[in-house]
Amino acid sequence: MSDDNHDIDTDDIERRMDGAIGALRTEFASLRTGRASATILEPIQVESYGQMTPLNQLGTVNVPEPRMVTINVWDRAMISKVEKAIRESGLGINPMVDGPIIRLPIPELNEERRRELTRVAAQYAEHARVSVRNVRRDGMDQLKRAKAAGMSEDEHKLWSEEIQTLTDAKIDAIDKLLETKQAEIMQI
């Protein structure tokens, strides 16, 4: 058998791990740090006509001033559902409905809320770590199958070490992102 039959697609493994880090960056962007940003609404899904829809697909999101986000909801029938989704999102923002526009005043962060947000950031980071480890597990499963199909012990060890090195690097990247985000949240 040629060695080519046992190549493990580390590019695919790395791409999937990078996807977990990309998702973490998006989640971090949604965490409020005291300034208004349209990205805080990105993870919010609204039940719309029987399916979950990202909030930004139901209206125009604007940031007219540093401490205010507005959503101009296109379909008036969706205003109450959008408002409810924001209230239940855990962002700690109290939406105010003004006709088709929902105003989200961004309150100053107090110490307690900052600590709460750092815990949320830590949860997001842990989800990303779990995703990376799941991709690692998939890679290791590929290796087991390749070994069963005749991969040499040395080759198995080499691929195994490469996957582990990749995993360690991605988890380090997640830890650095978390550290940076927590410092940003705690900054007054």
From TrEMBL:
Question: Would you tell me the Gene Ontology cellular component terms?
Answer: cytosol
| Limits of the Ribosome recycling factor domain | 24-186
Primary localization class, coarse: cytoplasm
Q: Name one GO molecular function term.
A: ribosomal large subunit binding
Compartment annotation: Cytoplasm
Record keywords: Ligase included?
A: no
| Keywords linked to the UniProt accession | Cytoplasm, Protein biosynthesis
- Please give one Pfam family short name: RRF
The protein's matches in InterPro entries, at most eight in alphabetical order, are given as: Ribosome_recyc_fac, Ribosome_recyc_fac_dom, RRF_sf
Biological process terms from the Gene Ontology for this record are: cytoplasmic translational termination
Role played: Responsible for the release of ribosomes from messenger RNA at the termination of protein biosynthesis. May increase the efficiency of translation by recycling ribosomes from one round of translation to another.
Q: Which protein family is it in?
A: Belongs to the RRF family.
Which NCBIfam families does this entry report, sorted A to Z?
frr
Name of the molecule in the record: Ribosome-recycling factor
